[in-house]
Batch of 2 targets.
Target 1
Amino acid sequence: MKNVALITGASSGIGKELAYIHAEKGGDLIIVARRQDKLNALKSELEQKHNIKVMTIVKDLSVPNASKELFEEVKSASIQVDYLINNAGFGLRGKFHELSWERQMQMINLNMVALTELTYLFLPEMVKRNSGKILNTSSTASFLPGPLQAVYYASKAYVTFLGNAIAEELHDTNITVTTLMPGATETEFASTSGMDKTELFKKTVSARSVAEDGYNGMLKGKLDVVSGLTMSQSMMLKMIPFTPKKMVLQQVRKGQEVE
Protein backbone atom coordinates (compact mmCIF):
# COMPACT_ATOMS: atom_id res chain seq x y z
CA MET A 1 0.00 0.00 0.00
CA LYS A 2 1.18 3.53 -0.77
CA ASN A 3 0.28 7.05 0.33
CA VAL A 4 -1.81 5.53 3.13
CA ALA A 5 -4.35 7.45 5.19
CA LEU A 6 -5.71 5.82 8.34
CA ILE A 7 -9.14 7.26 9.12
CA THR A 8 -11.12 6.53 12.28
CA GLY A 9 -14.87 6.97 12.28
CA ALA A 10 -14.80 6.31 8.54
CA SER A 11 -18.19 4.65 8.10
CA SER A 12 -20.22 7.88 7.92
CA GLY A 13 -20.20 11.66 8.00
CA ILE A 14 -16.96 13.63 7.79
CA GLY A 15 -14.81 10.48 8.10
CA LYS A 16 -16.50 8.83 5.11
CA GLU A 17 -16.09 12.00 3.03
CA LEU A 18 -12.41 12.18 3.98
CA ALA A 19 -12.05 8.61 2.71
CA TYR A 20 -13.70 9.57 -0.59
CA ILE A 21 -11.38 12.56 -1.01
CA HIS A 22 -8.21 10.59 -0.31
CA ALA A 23 -9.30 7.81 -2.67
CA GLU A 24 -10.09 10.34 -5.41
CA LYS A 25 -6.49 11.48 -5.17
CA GLY A 26 -5.26 7.90 -5.66
CA GLY A 27 -4.25 7.19 -2.06
CA ASP A 28 -4.70 3.87 -0.30
CA LEU A 29 -6.72 3.65 2.90
CA ILE A 30 -7.10 2.00 6.27
CA ILE A 31 -10.68 2.69 7.34
CA VAL A 32 -11.72 2.09 10.94
CA ALA A 33 -15.20 2.00 12.49
CA ARG A 34 -17.55 -0.23 14.48
CA ARG A 35 -19.86 -1.23 11.62
CA GLN A 36 -18.46 -4.01 9.43
CA ASP A 37 -21.21 -3.78 6.80
CA LYS A 38 -20.67 -0.09 6.17
CA LEU A 39 -16.88 -0.49 6.03
CA ASN A 40 -17.18 -3.36 3.53
CA ALA A 41 -19.54 -1.36 1.33
CA LEU A 42 -17.19 1.63 1.37
CA LYS A 43 -14.15 -0.56 0.65
CA SER A 44 -15.87 -2.17 -2.35
CA GLU A 45 -17.00 1.18 -3.74
CA LEU A 46 -13.63 2.90 -3.40
CA GLU A 47 -11.56 0.01 -4.74
CA GLN A 48 -13.76 -0.41 -7.81
CA LYS A 49 -14.12 3.28 -8.56
CA HIS A 50 -10.55 4.45 -7.89
CA ASN A 51 -8.42 1.33 -8.30
CA ILE A 52 -6.86 1.68 -4.86
CA LYS A 53 -6.30 -0.66 -1.89
CA VAL A 54 -8.49 -0.39 1.18
CA MET A 55 -7.93 -2.21 4.46
CA THR A 56 -10.88 -2.35 6.88
CA ILE A 57 -10.52 -2.70 10.63
CA VAL A 58 -13.60 -3.11 12.80
CA LYS A 59 -12.87 -1.54 16.15
CA ASP A 60 -14.78 0.23 18.91
CA LEU A 61 -12.21 2.77 20.00
CA SER A 62 -14.18 3.71 23.10
CA VAL A 63 -13.09 0.39 24.60
CA PRO A 64 -9.81 0.33 26.57
CA ASN A 65 -6.82 -1.14 24.66
CA ALA A 66 -8.63 -0.86 21.31
CA SER A 67 -6.20 1.80 20.06
CA LYS A 68 -3.19 -0.36 20.81
CA GLU A 69 -4.85 -3.33 19.11
CA LEU A 70 -5.46 -1.16 16.04
CA PHE A 71 -1.85 0.00 15.97
CA GLU A 72 -0.52 -3.55 16.32
CA GLU A 73 -2.78 -4.77 13.52
CA VAL A 74 -1.45 -2.10 11.18
CA LYS A 75 2.13 -2.76 12.26
CA SER A 76 1.78 -6.54 11.75
CA ALA A 77 0.60 -5.84 8.20
CA SER A 78 3.81 -3.80 7.63
CA ILE A 79 1.87 -0.77 6.41
CA GLN A 80 3.32 2.74 6.68
CA VAL A 81 0.71 5.29 7.71
CA ASP A 82 1.43 8.60 5.98
CA TYR A 83 -1.70 10.44 7.14
CA LEU A 84 -3.23 9.75 10.55
CA ILE A 85 -6.78 11.13 10.62
CA ASN A 86 -8.32 10.96 14.09
CA ASN A 87 -11.94 11.61 13.22
CA ALA A 88 -14.01 9.27 15.44
CA GLY A 89 -16.08 10.94 18.14
CA PHE A 90 -19.59 11.54 19.43
CA GLY A 91 -21.56 13.89 21.66
CA LEU A 92 -24.41 13.74 24.16
CA ARG A 93 -26.98 16.43 24.92
CA GLY A 94 -28.37 16.81 28.40
CA LYS A 95 -27.46 17.89 31.91
CA PHE A 96 -24.17 16.42 33.10
CA HIS A 97 -25.60 14.89 36.28
CA GLU A 98 -28.58 13.35 34.45
CA LEU A 99 -26.75 11.70 31.55
CA SER A 100 -25.50 8.13 31.77
CA TRP A 101 -22.03 8.01 33.31
CA GLU A 102 -21.19 4.96 31.20
CA ARG A 103 -21.95 6.85 27.96
CA GLN A 104 -20.01 9.91 29.10
CA MET A 105 -17.04 7.71 29.95
CA GLN A 106 -17.24 6.15 26.48
CA MET A 107 -17.22 9.66 25.02
CA ILE A 108 -14.12 10.57 27.03
CA ASN A 109 -12.41 7.37 25.91
CA LEU A 110 -13.25 7.91 22.24
CA ASN A 111 -12.94 11.69 21.88
CA MET A 112 -9.79 12.09 23.98
CA VAL A 113 -8.07 8.89 25.08
CA ALA A 114 -8.19 7.01 21.76
CA LEU A 115 -7.12 10.07 19.77
CA THR A 116 -4.24 10.72 22.15
CA GLU A 117 -3.08 7.11 22.20
CA LEU A 118 -3.20 6.67 18.42
CA THR A 119 -1.20 9.87 18.00
CA TYR A 120 1.30 8.67 20.60
CA LEU A 121 1.67 5.28 18.90
CA PHE A 122 1.98 6.41 15.27
CA LEU A 123 3.93 9.65 15.76
CA PRO A 124 7.35 8.11 16.64
CA GLU A 125 7.50 6.35 13.27
CA MET A 126 6.68 9.62 11.51
CA VAL A 127 9.43 11.37 13.46
CA LYS A 128 11.90 8.60 12.64
CA ARG A 129 11.39 9.04 8.89
CA ASN A 130 10.70 12.80 9.23
CA SER A 131 7.47 12.72 7.24
CA GLY A 132 3.78 12.44 7.92
CA LYS A 133 0.64 14.43 8.60
CA ILE A 134 -1.95 14.26 11.37
CA LEU A 135 -5.49 15.61 11.11
CA ASN A 136 -7.61 15.71 14.27
CA THR A 137 -11.33 16.42 14.03
CA SER A 138 -12.20 18.78 16.86
CA SER A 139 -15.08 21.28 16.80
CA THR A 140 -15.86 24.97 17.10
CA ALA A 141 -17.20 23.76 20.46
CA SER A 142 -13.57 23.80 21.58
CA PHE A 143 -13.66 27.61 21.79
CA LEU A 144 -16.00 27.77 24.78
CA PRO A 145 -17.72 25.81 27.58
CA GLY A 146 -20.88 23.95 26.56
CA PRO A 147 -23.75 23.75 29.02
CA LEU A 148 -25.99 20.78 28.02
CA GLN A 149 -22.95 19.22 26.34
CA ALA A 150 -20.43 19.79 29.10
CA VAL A 151 -18.18 16.77 28.51
CA TYR A 152 -18.35 16.97 24.71
CA TYR A 153 -17.26 20.62 24.59
CA ALA A 154 -14.51 19.97 27.14
CA SER A 155 -13.29 16.96 25.15
CA LYS A 156 -13.01 19.04 21.99
CA ALA A 157 -11.11 21.78 23.82
CA TYR A 158 -8.66 19.05 24.82
CA VAL A 159 -8.34 17.87 21.20
CA THR A 160 -7.62 21.38 19.93
CA PHE A 161 -5.08 22.26 22.61
CA LEU A 162 -3.33 18.90 22.37
CA GLY A 163 -2.98 19.13 18.58
CA ASN A 164 -1.74 22.72 18.69
CA ALA A 165 0.85 21.89 21.35
CA ILE A 166 2.20 18.83 19.51
CA ALA A 167 2.34 20.82 16.27
CA GLU A 168 4.66 23.33 17.92
CA GLU A 169 6.79 20.54 19.39
CA LEU A 170 7.29 19.33 15.81
CA HIS A 171 8.16 22.78 14.44
CA ASP A 172 11.63 21.66 13.34
CA THR A 173 10.39 18.56 11.48
CA ASN A 174 8.47 17.88 8.26
CA ILE A 175 5.49 16.58 10.25
CA THR A 176 2.38 18.70 10.69
CA VAL A 177 -0.63 18.46 12.99
CA THR A 178 -3.83 20.11 11.76
CA THR A 179 -6.97 20.61 13.84
CA LEU A 180 -10.30 20.67 12.00
CA MET A 181 -13.00 22.62 13.82
CA PRO A 182 -16.40 22.24 12.13
CA GLY A 183 -19.61 23.97 13.08
CA ALA A 184 -23.02 22.28 12.74
CA THR A 185 -22.59 19.65 10.02
CA GLU A 186 -24.94 17.23 8.23
CA THR A 187 -23.85 13.97 9.86
CA GLU A 188 -25.24 11.34 12.22
CA PHE A 189 -23.80 13.42 15.08
CA ALA A 190 -26.98 15.50 15.46
CA SER A 191 -29.34 12.55 15.91
CA THR A 192 -26.85 10.53 17.97
CA SER A 193 -26.20 13.42 20.36
CA GLY A 194 -29.82 14.60 20.54
CA MET A 195 -28.93 17.92 18.90
CA ASP A 196 -31.13 17.48 15.81
CA LYS A 197 -34.05 19.47 17.26
CA THR A 198 -32.03 22.40 18.59
CA GLU A 199 -31.55 25.94 17.33
CA LEU A 200 -27.85 25.24 16.72
CA PHE A 201 -28.59 22.56 14.13
CA LYS A 202 -31.30 24.40 12.19
CA LYS A 203 -28.68 25.37 9.63
CA THR A 204 -26.02 22.82 8.76
CA VAL A 205 -23.33 22.47 6.10
CA SER A 206 -22.47 19.35 4.13
CA ALA A 207 -19.98 16.85 5.51
CA ARG A 208 -18.24 16.94 2.11
CA SER A 209 -17.44 20.65 2.32
CA VAL A 210 -16.08 20.29 5.87
CA ALA A 211 -13.99 17.27 4.86
CA GLU A 212 -12.55 19.16 1.89
CA ASP A 213 -11.58 22.08 4.11
CA GLY A 214 -9.94 19.74 6.61
CA TYR A 215 -8.12 17.60 4.04
CA ASN A 216 -6.80 20.60 2.09
CA GLY A 217 -5.74 22.27 5.32
CA MET A 218 -3.87 19.12 6.32
CA LEU A 219 -2.03 19.00 2.99
CA LYS A 220 -0.98 22.63 3.46
CA GLY A 221 0.14 21.95 7.03
CA LYS A 222 -2.27 24.47 8.54
CA LEU A 223 -2.52 24.62 12.31
CA ASP A 224 -6.29 25.19 12.56
CA VAL A 225 -9.12 24.89 10.04
CA VAL A 226 -12.50 26.37 11.01
CA SER A 227 -15.27 25.19 8.68
CA GLY A 228 -19.01 25.35 8.19
CA LEU A 229 -19.96 28.43 10.20
CA THR A 230 -22.69 30.88 9.27
CA MET A 231 -21.84 34.58 9.29
CA SER A 232 -23.63 35.10 12.60
CA GLN A 233 -21.83 32.13 14.19
CA SER A 234 -18.46 33.48 13.00
CA MET A 235 -19.26 36.86 14.51
CA MET A 236 -20.31 35.23 17.78
CA LEU A 237 -17.04 33.34 18.06
CA LYS A 238 -15.05 36.51 17.41
CA MET A 239 -16.97 38.31 20.15
CA ILE A 240 -16.44 35.64 22.82
CA PRO A 241 -13.27 37.22 24.32
CA PHE A 242 -15.15 40.52 24.76
CA THR A 243 -18.41 39.07 26.12
CA PRO A 244 -19.05 38.32 29.81
CA LYS A 245 -18.69 34.58 30.34
CA LYS A 246 -22.09 34.30 32.04
CA MET A 247 -23.73 35.72 28.91
CA VAL A 248 -21.78 33.35 26.65
CA LEU A 249 -22.88 30.38 28.74
CA GLN A 250 -26.51 31.46 28.56
CA GLN A 251 -26.34 31.83 24.78
CA VAL A 252 -24.76 28.40 24.34
CA ARG A 253 -27.34 26.78 26.65
CA LYS A 254 -30.27 28.34 24.80
CA GLY A 255 -28.84 27.24 21.47
CA GLN A 256 -28.81 23.64 22.69
CA GLU A 257 -32.21 23.50 24.32
CA VAL A 258 -34.84 21.46 22.50
CA GLU A 259 -37.66 23.69 21.31
Note: The chain has a mean pLDDT of 91.
Target 2
Amino acid sequence: MSTALPARVPPSVAVAQCLALAWRGIVKIRRHPLVLADVVLGPAVFLVLFVYVFGGAIEGSTDRYLQFVLPGILGLMTLLATMGVGVALCQDLKSGVFDRIRSLPTLRIAPLVGAIGGDAVRQIVAIAALLGFGTLLGFRFQTDAWAVLAACGLAVAFALSLSWVWVLLGLLVKDAQAVQGLGAMLIFPLCFASNIFVPPGTMPGWLRGFVEVNPIRHLMDAMRGMMVGGPVARPVLWTLMWMVGFVAVFAPLALAAYRRSAR
Protein backbone atom coordinates (compact mmCIF):
# COMPACT_ATOMS: atom_id res chain seq x y z
CA MET A 1 0.00 0.00 0.00
CA SER A 2 1.38 3.39 -0.98
CA THR A 3 2.32 5.73 1.86
CA ALA A 4 2.34 8.83 -0.33
CA LEU A 5 0.13 11.70 0.71
CA PRO A 6 -3.14 12.21 -1.14
CA ALA A 7 -3.02 14.22 -4.34
CA ARG A 8 -4.55 17.20 -2.54
CA VAL A 9 -2.54 18.32 0.44
CA PRO A 10 -2.50 21.63 2.27
CA PRO A 11 0.06 23.95 0.70
CA SER A 12 1.65 24.53 4.11
CA VAL A 13 2.31 20.80 4.50
CA ALA A 14 3.79 20.51 1.02
CA VAL A 15 6.05 23.52 1.56
CA ALA A 16 7.17 22.25 4.98
CA GLN A 17 8.13 18.86 3.56
CA CYS A 18 10.09 20.39 0.69
CA LEU A 19 11.90 22.75 3.06
CA ALA A 20 12.72 19.92 5.47
CA LEU A 21 14.29 17.85 2.70
CA ALA A 22 16.13 20.90 1.35
CA TRP A 23 17.51 21.48 4.86
CA ARG A 24 18.83 17.92 4.76
CA GLY A 25 21.04 18.91 1.82
CA ILE A 26 22.25 22.00 3.66
CA VAL A 27 23.13 19.94 6.74
CA LYS A 28 25.23 17.64 4.55
CA ILE A 29 27.20 20.68 3.37
CA ARG A 30 27.68 21.88 6.97
CA ARG A 31 29.08 18.50 7.98
CA HIS A 32 31.29 18.16 4.89
CA PRO A 33 32.24 21.72 3.86
CA LEU A 34 34.91 20.45 1.46
CA VAL A 35 32.14 19.66 -1.02
CA LEU A 36 32.07 23.42 -1.64
CA ALA A 37 35.69 23.47 -2.76
CA ASP A 38 34.79 23.18 -6.44
CA VAL A 39 32.36 26.11 -6.36
CA VAL A 40 34.79 28.27 -4.35
CA LEU A 41 38.05 27.54 -6.19
CA GLY A 42 36.61 26.72 -9.60
CA PRO A 43 35.33 30.24 -10.38
CA ALA A 44 38.65 31.80 -9.38
CA VAL A 45 40.63 29.41 -11.60
CA PHE A 46 38.32 29.94 -14.59
CA LEU A 47 38.41 33.71 -14.19
CA VAL A 48 42.20 33.95 -13.96
CA LEU A 49 42.77 31.59 -16.89
CA PHE A 50 40.32 33.23 -19.27
CA VAL A 51 41.15 36.82 -18.36
CA TYR A 52 44.95 36.56 -18.39
CA VAL A 53 45.37 33.88 -21.07
CA PHE A 54 42.72 34.99 -23.58
CA GLY A 55 41.81 38.52 -22.51
CA GLY A 56 44.58 40.33 -24.35
CA ALA A 57 43.98 38.41 -27.58
CA ILE A 58 40.19 38.72 -27.54
CA GLU A 59 39.63 42.23 -26.21
CA GLY A 60 43.10 43.78 -26.46
CA SER A 61 43.05 44.48 -22.72
CA THR A 62 42.68 42.16 -19.74
CA ASP A 63 40.84 44.90 -17.84
CA ARG A 64 38.21 45.33 -20.55
CA TYR A 65 37.85 41.59 -20.99
CA LEU A 66 37.34 41.18 -17.23
CA GLN A 67 34.36 43.53 -17.45
CA PHE A 68 32.92 41.43 -20.28
CA VAL A 69 33.64 37.90 -19.10
CA LEU A 70 32.93 37.98 -15.35
CA PRO A 71 29.11 37.93 -15.72
CA GLY A 72 29.57 35.09 -18.21
CA ILE A 73 31.73 32.99 -15.91
CA LEU A 74 29.31 33.67 -13.06
CA GLY A 75 26.55 32.14 -15.16
CA LEU A 76 28.82 29.27 -16.22
CA MET A 77 29.76 28.38 -12.65
CA THR A 78 26.16 28.33 -11.45
CA LEU A 79 25.19 26.11 -14.38
CA LEU A 80 28.08 23.70 -13.76
CA ALA A 81 27.14 23.51 -10.09
CA THR A 82 23.69 22.20 -11.03
CA MET A 83 25.20 18.87 -12.07
CA GLY A 84 25.80 18.15 -8.39
CA VAL A 85 22.03 17.64 -7.96
CA GLY A 86 21.98 14.63 -10.26
CA VAL A 87 25.15 13.17 -8.75
CA ALA A 88 23.84 13.52 -5.18
CA LEU A 89 20.53 12.02 -6.25
CA CYS A 90 22.28 8.93 -7.63
CA GLN A 91 24.21 8.52 -4.39
CA ASP A 92 21.01 8.77 -2.33
CA LEU A 93 19.29 6.19 -4.52
CA LYS A 94 22.18 3.77 -4.12
CA SER A 95 22.45 4.28 -0.36
CA GLY A 96 18.76 3.58 0.18
CA VAL A 97 17.95 7.03 1.56
CA PHE A 98 15.11 7.51 -0.90
CA ASP A 99 13.64 4.13 0.02
CA ARG A 100 13.38 5.33 3.62
CA ILE A 101 11.84 8.62 2.52
CA ARG A 102 9.27 6.74 0.44
CA SER A 103 8.22 4.81 3.55
CA LEU A 104 7.20 8.09 5.18
CA PRO A 105 3.92 9.92 4.49
CA THR A 106 5.63 12.51 2.28
CA LEU A 107 4.51 14.18 -0.91
CA ARG A 108 5.94 12.30 -3.89
CA ILE A 109 7.72 15.27 -5.41
CA ALA A 110 9.07 16.62 -2.09
CA PRO A 111 12.42 14.72 -2.22
CA LEU A 112 13.11 16.04 -5.71
CA VAL A 113 12.17 19.62 -4.86
CA GLY A 114 14.19 19.34 -1.65
CA ALA A 115 17.27 18.13 -3.53
CA ILE A 116 17.09 21.13 -5.86
CA GLY A 117 16.33 23.59 -3.05
CA GLY A 118 19.29 22.42 -1.00
CA ASP A 119 21.55 23.02 -4.00
CA ALA A 120 20.75 26.73 -3.83
CA VAL A 121 23.45 27.04 -1.14
CA ARG A 122 26.09 25.87 -3.61
CA GLN A 123 24.85 28.40 -6.13
CA ILE A 124 25.00 31.29 -3.65
CA VAL A 125 28.49 30.31 -2.47
CA ALA A 126 29.71 30.11 -6.08
CA ILE A 127 28.35 33.58 -6.86
CA ALA A 128 29.76 35.17 -3.70
CA ALA A 129 33.19 33.63 -4.28
CA LEU A 130 33.36 34.76 -7.90
CA LEU A 131 32.13 38.30 -7.29
CA GLY A 132 34.55 38.74 -4.40
CA PHE A 133 37.51 37.46 -6.37
CA GLY A 134 36.52 39.41 -9.49
CA THR A 135 36.35 42.62 -7.48
CA LEU A 136 39.87 42.00 -6.20
CA LEU A 137 41.06 41.59 -9.81
CA GLY A 138 39.50 44.92 -10.77
CA PHE A 139 35.95 44.22 -11.90
CA ARG A 140 33.64 47.18 -11.34
CA PHE A 141 29.84 47.18 -11.45
CA GLN A 142 28.31 49.85 -13.66
CA THR A 143 24.83 49.60 -12.15
CA ASP A 144 23.35 49.82 -8.66
CA ALA A 145 23.30 47.18 -5.93
CA TRP A 146 19.69 46.20 -6.59
CA ALA A 147 20.42 45.44 -10.22
CA VAL A 148 23.42 43.31 -9.24
CA LEU A 149 21.35 41.39 -6.70
CA ALA A 150 18.67 40.88 -9.34
CA ALA A 151 21.29 39.47 -11.74
CA CYS A 152 22.52 37.04 -9.08
CA GLY A 153 18.97 36.01 -8.23
CA LEU A 154 18.20 35.42 -11.90
CA ALA A 155 21.30 33.23 -12.27
CA VAL A 156 20.32 31.12 -9.25
CA ALA A 157 16.71 30.80 -10.40
CA PHE A 158 17.79 29.78 -13.91
CA ALA A 159 20.20 27.20 -12.51
CA LEU A 160 17.56 25.73 -10.19
CA SER A 161 15.07 25.43 -13.04
CA LEU A 162 17.73 23.73 -15.18
CA SER A 163 18.43 21.35 -12.29
CA TRP A 164 15.32 19.38 -13.26
CA VAL A 165 17.29 18.12 -16.26
CA TRP A 166 19.95 16.62 -13.99
CA VAL A 167 17.30 15.25 -11.63
CA LEU A 168 15.78 13.39 -14.56
CA LEU A 169 19.21 12.13 -15.64
CA GLY A 170 19.97 10.98 -12.10
CA LEU A 171 16.74 9.00 -11.95
CA LEU A 172 17.18 7.42 -15.38
CA VAL A 173 20.90 6.71 -15.42
CA LYS A 174 21.35 5.86 -11.71
CA ASP A 175 25.14 6.08 -11.89
CA ALA A 176 26.89 9.15 -10.48
CA GLN A 177 29.85 9.11 -12.86
CA ALA A 178 27.61 8.60 -15.88
CA VAL A 179 25.38 11.51 -14.82
CA GLN A 180 28.42 13.75 -14.45
CA GLY A 181 29.75 12.71 -17.86
CA LEU A 182 26.43 13.15 -19.64
CA GLY A 183 25.87 16.44 -17.86
CA ALA A 184 29.21 17.78 -19.08
CA MET A 185 28.40 16.67 -22.63
CA LEU A 186 25.19 18.69 -22.48
CA ILE A 187 26.29 21.80 -20.60
CA PHE A 188 29.67 22.52 -22.22
CA PRO A 189 28.39 22.84 -25.82
CA LEU A 190 25.57 25.11 -24.60
CA CYS A 191 28.00 27.30 -22.64
CA PHE A 192 30.83 27.55 -25.16
CA ALA A 193 28.49 28.00 -28.15
CA SER A 194 27.08 31.13 -26.54
CA ASN A 195 28.13 34.67 -25.70
CA ILE A 196 29.76 33.76 -22.38
CA PHE A 197 33.35 34.23 -23.58
CA VAL A 198 33.16 36.12 -26.88
CA PRO A 199 30.60 38.26 -28.74
CA PRO A 200 28.59 36.15 -31.22
CA GLY A 201 29.55 38.50 -34.05
CA THR A 202 32.97 36.84 -34.29
CA MET A 203 31.44 33.40 -34.97
CA PRO A 204 30.57 31.82 -38.34
CA GLY A 205 26.99 32.29 -39.50
CA TRP A 206 25.79 28.74 -38.80
CA LEU A 207 27.05 28.95 -35.22
CA ARG A 208 25.53 32.40 -34.69
CA GLY A 209 22.18 30.88 -35.63
CA PHE A 210 22.54 28.38 -32.79
CA VAL A 211 23.64 31.09 -30.36
CA GLU A 212 20.51 33.11 -31.17
CA VAL A 213 18.27 30.30 -29.88
CA ASN A 214 20.59 29.21 -27.05
CA PRO A 215 18.92 29.86 -23.65
CA ILE A 216 22.34 30.64 -22.14
CA ARG A 217 22.69 33.60 -24.49
CA HIS A 218 19.55 35.27 -23.12
CA LEU A 219 20.70 34.69 -19.55
CA MET A 220 24.08 36.27 -20.32
CA ASP A 221 22.51 39.30 -22.01
CA ALA A 222 20.27 39.82 -18.98
CA MET A 223 23.09 39.49 -16.46
CA ARG A 224 25.44 41.81 -18.35
CA GLY A 225 22.67 44.37 -18.68
CA MET A 226 22.05 44.31 -14.93
CA MET A 227 25.75 44.34 -13.98
CA VAL A 228 27.55 46.51 -16.51
CA GLY A 229 24.70 48.16 -18.39
CA GLY A 230 22.71 47.35 -21.51
CA PRO A 231 19.28 46.04 -22.54
CA VAL A 232 17.53 44.17 -19.73
CA ALA A 233 13.79 43.76 -20.30
CA ARG A 234 13.84 41.58 -23.43
CA PRO A 235 16.60 39.16 -22.33
CA VAL A 236 15.03 38.82 -18.87
CA LEU A 237 11.69 37.97 -20.46
CA TRP A 238 13.30 35.32 -22.67
CA THR A 239 15.19 33.90 -19.70
CA LEU A 240 12.02 33.64 -17.63
CA MET A 241 10.26 31.84 -20.48
CA TRP A 242 13.12 29.33 -20.73
CA MET A 243 12.94 28.75 -16.99
CA VAL A 244 9.20 28.06 -17.15
CA GLY A 245 9.83 25.72 -20.07
CA PHE A 246 12.51 23.74 -18.22
CA VAL A 247 10.27 23.23 -15.21
CA ALA A 248 7.13 22.51 -17.25
CA VAL A 249 8.88 19.85 -19.35
CA PHE A 250 11.42 18.19 -17.08
CA ALA A 251 9.72 18.33 -13.66
CA PRO A 252 6.79 16.09 -14.75
CA LEU A 253 9.21 13.74 -16.53
CA ALA A 254 11.38 13.53 -13.39
CA LEU A 255 8.35 12.87 -11.21
CA ALA A 256 7.17 10.12 -13.58
CA ALA A 257 10.64 8.53 -13.48
CA TYR A 258 10.64 8.76 -9.68
CA ARG A 259 7.26 7.03 -9.49
CA ARG A 260 8.44 4.23 -11.79
CA SER A 261 11.55 3.71 -9.67
CA ALA A 262 9.32 3.32 -6.59
CA ARG A 263 7.48 0.31 -8.02
Note: The CA atoms of residues 203 and 215 lie 17 Å apart.
